[in-house]
Design goal:
This protein is an alpha/beta fold. The chain folds into two domains: 70 residues; 323 residues, Rossmann fold (3-Layer(aba) Sandwich). The chain is built from 15 helices and twelve strands. The strands form three sheets. It has a seven-stranded mixed sheet, with helices on both faces. It has a three-stranded antiparallel sheet with strand order 1-3-2. Helix 5 packs across helix 15, helix 7 crosses helix 10 and helix 10 runs parallel beside helix 11. The longest helix has 25 residues. It is globular. The protein binds adenosine-5'-triphosphate (ATP) and magnesium ion. The site of magnesium ion (MG) has 6 residues, from helix 5.
Length: 431
């Protein structure tokens, strides 16, 4: 017979192994670092200008960042910071290299969600974030999943649950309850609602004293920040049920949205959410805060089935919110019923040579029409391998694997990202 003690013992063994893998994966101080990018990558894949034009510009202006030449190589290698400086300072045919962003708009928020486990959510969120950063955007990632795949991939492994979506939600409960109670006092009479009490056990956690930016962590990518998650944040699903009981008028699903409303409009360009494989308090917060919904799905029939039930469940959950809270929902930047500027299905782990996959993509297109993205993400060994090393194809040095495999993988993610970016630009004005 086995008890929780045996499970704890097995976990202790596994943690030892985890520590070892991290040490092998990250830099010697066991912190993740970002590699440099070669002048070939910078010119052709990142800034998308001719290599000789690029070299000409560098030669003409010695004050531009000049990268670093490796011991036995001839190419120059640039940091992300240097690439961003080049992008800011260089003009090609008098055109800026900065990525488009409508003036006066807040960051665009995209949620990657599906309750099918292993659909490719974290892989898509990670790759889109990296591609966007290389494209010159400032990105905030929010990890809503206590499995914390995205946080680990971004190099954050020791996270306290106070600093996750759970902390944001608990802090929001305190603030919203205080706000509602204050409104009751102000209303003098005629209200049927009693003042709500938040127990000391919640108030004394000190969450209310955390500053807005305490939840945001830096990563090895200078233009990607993250609100990370951790296994203990799984508690949120239990805690939130209790919190709702403490204050049934608390619009629990809008906690993260309210938090993000408090960021400066120009702090970030894109905010990308990675969701857990479930519909619960955390994923509802992600979906509610999102301007666009990206639903990745593998190319199998069961995944199609599961995606179909996901949108059904989500539709019901959102309808419930609209009816349950429509009356006393505090005016924020997002209204009820929740409306998305865009909804897209994105096929992942797609093999163009596989008849079954092609048939499934056709079926998706037949059913969901224009909501299916044009560019599926292909199945690639580069990602399977990068999963093990907790890195995206953008982080992997192309010299560490077959150039053709790397290139094909990168092209597939680039095409999917390019379409994601075009859709965002087309919808940014709606937010
Ligand atoms: N394009 C791809 N090519 C090859 N392998 C892939 C690809 N996309 C995802 N995978 C692999 O599939 C597995 C699941 O991917 P991922 O973790 O992104 O899914 P998920 O939807 O986030 O899962 P979960 O529901 O557990 O959060 C991982 O091992 C990942 O490396
Ligand atoms: Mg995931």
């Amino acid at each position: 017979m086995y008890t929780h003690e045996d499970l704890a013992q097995l976990q202790a063994q596994s943690l030892k192994m985890q520590g070892w893998i991290r040490q092998q994966t990250f830099s010697p101080e066991s912190r993740k670092t970002l590699r440099r990018f070669s002048s070939w990558e910078v010119s052709e894949l990142i800034l998308r200008i001719n290599q000789s034009t690029f070299r000409g510009r560098l030669a003409a202006d010695p004050s531009l960042p000049s990268g670093e030449v490796e011991a036995e190589g001839r190419q120059r290698w640039y940091t992300l910071e240097e690439i961003n400086e080049l992008r800011r300072r260089m003009k090609i045919n008098r055109k800026s290299l900065m990525p488009p962003r409508p003036a006066g708009k807040r960051a665009f928020r995209a949620a990657v969600a599906n309750f099918k486990g292993g659909a490719g959510k974290s892989t898509v969120a990670l790759h889109f974030a990296h591609a966007a950063a290389l494209d010159g955007y400032r990105v905030l990632l929010v990890d809503f999943d206590p499995q914390a795949t995205l946080s680990h991939s971004m190099g954050l492994t020791d996270v306290a649950e106070d600093y996750t979506v759970w902390g944001i939600m608990a802090r929001d409960l305190i603030r919203e309850t205080d706000r509602q109670n204050a409104a009751l006092v102000g209303a003098e009479s005629g209200t049927a609602l009693p003042a709500r009490k938040i127990p000391a056990s919640i108030r004394d956690m000190g969450l209310d004293e955390l500053r807005h930016h305490d939840f945001i962590k830096q990563t090895s990518w200078s233009t990607i920040d993250i609100i990370p998650s951790c296994a203990n944040a799984a508690f949120v699903e239990f805690a939130s049920a209790q919190y709702r009981h403490l204050n049934p008028e608390w619009t629990f699903f809008a906690a993260v949205s309210r938090y993000l409303d408090g960021l400066g409009d120009d702090d970030y360009d894109l905010i990308i959410f990675d969701c857990p494989p479930a519909i619960g308090y955390q994923s509802m917060n992600a979906v509610f805060a999102a301007d666009a919904l990206y639903i990745p799905s593998g190319p199998g029939y069961w995944e199609y089935d599961s995606t179909t039930s996901f949108i059904g469940q989500l539709s019901e959950a959102l309808e419930d919110l609209a009816h349950g809270f429509g009356e006393n929902f505090p005016a924020g930047k997002i209204a009820l019923p929740k409306a998305f500027a865009d909804i897209r299905f994105l096929m992942t782990r797609y093999e163009p040579g596989n008849d079954l996959h092609r048939a499934m993509l056709e079926a998706f297109r037949k059913v969901f029409g224009d909501h299916v993205t044009q560019n599926p993400i292909e199945m690639t060994r580069a990602v399977e391998q990068s999963g093990r090393f907790l890195s995206s194809v953008y982080e992997i040095d192309y010299r560490d694997m077959t150039r053709e495999t790397w290139r094909r993988a990168r092209e597939s993610f680039d095409r999917a990202y390019g379409e994601f970016r075009d859709n965002i630009i087309a919808n940014w004005d709606k937010v």
